[in-house]
Specification:
This protein has helices at 15-24, 32-52, 75-88, 152-156, 225-235, 247-257, 276-289, 321-329; strands spanning 6-7, 62-66, 72-74, 94-99, 106-107, 117-125, 136-144, 162-171, 175-180, 185-191, 196-202, 212-214, 240-241, 260-263, 274-275, 293-295, 313-314, 316-319. With 332 residues, it is of the alpha+beta class. Strands 1-11-10-9-8-7-6-4-5 form a nine-stranded mixed β-sheet, with helices on both faces. Strands 13-12-14-18-16 form a five-stranded mixed β-sheet. Strands 2-3 form a two-stranded antiparallel ribbon. The longest helix has 21 residues, at 32-52. The two termini are 29 Å apart. 2,6-di-O-phosphono-beta-D-fructofuranose binds next to helix 6.
C-alpha cells in the first residue's frame, strides 16, 4: 500500500493550532478538544521536564505505597498522576478522570454540571524503566459520556460511552505526542527551544507488514499453544525480536516501523497484564486509525470490548495488519 504519510518540514504548526484548525473545519464544534488537549499538552510537558531532570531532582526510586494493582509505585508515578490531575481538574467539560494510579475515579462534575467527557490515563507507563533512562510515556483516552446519563462512574462503563480521541506522549530520546481524534493519526515533537509540540507527521500510516515481533519471551513457558505456535512460525520465517518493556515505546516503534506487539494472557495472568481502559483501548484506536489492527489473543477487536470495571486487564495483540493476521492464523 502506498505511504500516504505527509512529512511536514516546511510549515510550522503547533499541536494547539492543529487542533483548533481541526475544530474550525467542523461547523458547530464546541472547542472541547482544544480545551482538554491543551491541558494534556501542559501536563505532559511538565512530566517530560521531571523525567529529563530525574537524577537532578529527587524523583527517582520506589515509594513504600502500592498502586491499585498491588504494584510498588515509583515516585515519578505519583508526581505524574498529580500533575495530570491538577492540569485537567479545572477543565469545565471533564466529568471524570480515571487513572491507573487511583483505585477510584475522580468525579469532577456531573453531566448536568457540564461534565461531557471522561479522560482515562496511565500517567507514566513503563515506569520500572525510569531508573535506567529508558523511554517511558503517558497514555490517554478521551471518552464522550452518554448525553442522557447522570455522569459519574456508571456513565464510564455504559455501552454508550464512546472513545473519541486517544494518544500518548513518549519521553524518549525526543519527546513525541501522537494523537488521533478519529480522523487519522498525527505526530508532534516537542521543540524545547519554543516549548511547543510541533507537527512533524500528518496522516501517519503503520507499515502493512514487517518481520518484527515484540513480546516478553521470558514468559514462553506460560504462553498458550496459539502464541507458542505463532512464535515457532516467526522463528522459522526470519523475524527479528524487539522488546523494550515500556508499552508506549514498543507501540511507538511498531507504529513507525511496523511489526507486531503482543502482551498475551499467561498462566500467571490469565486475563493479560495491560489495562483495557487506559492502555489497550487508546493504543488500539491509534493503531487502527493508522491502518493497523488491535485484537486480544482470542481474536476479539479491542475496541469492541465493553468494559465492565475500571481497572480491567486484557491481552493485547496489535500492529501491522498483515502481522496481526499471521498471529491470528495460529490461534485455533
Ligand atoms: P511497567 O510494568 O514497567 O509499568 O503496563 C505496564 C508495563 O510496564 C508496560 O509498559 C509494559 O509493556 C509491560 O508492563 C511490561 O511488562 P513485563 O515486564 O511483564 O514484560
Amino acid at each position: 500500500m502506498a505511504d500516504t504519510t505527509t512529512w511536514t518540514d516546511d510549515n510550522l504548526m503547533s499541536l494547539q493550532s492543529h487542533v483548533l484548525a481541526g475544530e474550525r473545519a467542523h461547523p458547530g464544534a464546541t472547542g472541547d478538544f482544544s480545551w482538554i488537549l491543551s491541558a494534556i499538552s501542559l501536563a505532559t510537558k511538565t512530566i517530560g521536564n521531571k523525567v529529563r531532570r530525574a537524577r537532578i531532582e529527587d524523583v527517582l526510586g520506589e515509594l513504600s505505597a502500592e498502586n491499585t494493582h498491588g504494584e510498588r509505585q515509583q515516585k515519578l508515578d505519583v508526581i505524574a498522576n498529580d500533575i495530570i490531575k491538577s492540569c485537567l481538574g479545572s477543565r469545565a467539560n471533564i466529568g471524570v478522570l480515571v487513572s491507573e494510579e487511583d483505585e477510584e475515579p475522580t468525579v469532577l462534575r456531573t453531566r448536568d454540571e457540564g461534565g461531557r467527557y471522561a479522560v482515562f490515563f496511565d500517567p507514566l507507563d513503563g515506569s520500572s524503566n525510569i531508573d535506567v533512562s529508558v523511554g517511558v510515556g503517558t497514555i490517554f483516552g478521551i471518552v464522550r459520556l452518554p448525553a442522557d446519563g447522570k455522569g459519574g462512574v456508571d456513565a464510564i462503563l455504559s455501552p454508550d460511552a464512546k472513545i473519541v480521541a486517544a494518544g500518548y506522549v513518549l519521553y524518549g530520546s525526543s519527546t513525541v505526542f501522537v494523537l488521533t481524534t478519529g480522523n487519522g493519526v498525527d505526530m508532534f515533537e516537542l521543540d524545547h527551544s519554543i516549548g511547543s509540540f510541533v507537527l512533524v507527521k500528518h496522516g501517519l500510516r503503520i507499515p502493512e507488514t514487517k518481520k518484527i515481533y515484540s513480546i516478553n519471551e521470558a514468559y514462553t513457558n506460560s504462553f498458550g499453544n496459539g502464541v507458542s505456535s505463532y512464535l515457532q512460525w516467526a522463528h522459522n520465517n526470519g523475524y527479528s525480536s524487539r522488546y523494550i518493556g515500556s508499552m508506549v515505546a514498543d507501540v511507538h516503534r511498531t507504529l513507525l516501523k511496523g511489526g507486531i506487539f503482543i502482551y498475551p494472557s499467561t498462566s500467571e495472568q490469565p486475563s493479560g497484564k495491560l489495562r483495557l481502559l487506559y492502555e489497550a483501548m487508546p493504543m488500539a484506536m491509534l493503531v487502527e486509525q493508522a491502518g493497523g489492527r488491535a485484537i486480544t489473543d482470542t481474536g476479539r477487536r479491542i475496541l469492541d470490548i465493553p468494559p465492565t470495571k475500571l481497572h480491567e486487564r486484557t491481552s493485547v495483540v496489535l500492529g501491522s495488519s498483515a502481522e496481526v493476521d499471521h498471529f491470528e492464523r495460529h490461534q485455533s
